Amino acid sequence: ILDIIWESANATKPIIQANTVRVADYPPVPELERIVEESYRVLDSLKKTQLALMPSKFRPLTSVGARARSITMGTFLCTETKKAIVSELGRCDAFLLKGGNMRGAKDYGDDEHFTLEAMLSEFEDTDIYMTKVRGSIIRVGLRETWAGPGTGWFQHDDQIILDEEGFVTGINGEPIDDDKLYIVGSMDDFFRS
Hints:
This protein has helices at residues 30-47, 72-89, 116-122, 135-145, and strands at residues 2-5, 15-18, 50-52, 94-98, 114-115, 128-134, 154-156, 160-162, 168-171, 174-175, 181-187. It is of the alpha+beta class. 21% of the residues are buried.
């Protein structure tokens, strides 16, 4: 609560008082609640808007277990985000997403569309960053995050090729070059362990 008080009409400076209170401790004002609901109602149809066609290779679509295994929603989101970055910036060699950034934990129906509502339930609201990562680090780095369940378990785009032991052997259809610096997109917590 911010109070700005002039003690008189001739006062040259106000008295400013600030108090922090928990809004949840107060009952809602019915009239304001109705206005808020009305204002948000125009967005309801947008929540159901289909954002992308779901290729069959991502079916069955699931985000269950994002912190413990590769999941189709993780691969889909990484692939589509990478495509958007390439479209906008011209280059992105790989997109990696920590399983902890995925929030949905949902099995999607075979005929269910990928909507704005689904995206908002899956993605943590955060920024995307681009960085350079040496091939030798990518080769072993993903596998290192897969030692056990955890928030740092990396999901990846569909152009990252793995061998049977989980080492990255290819990026964008080409063998990985240990000495090359790859442009990698991720969320702002990419470097946090």
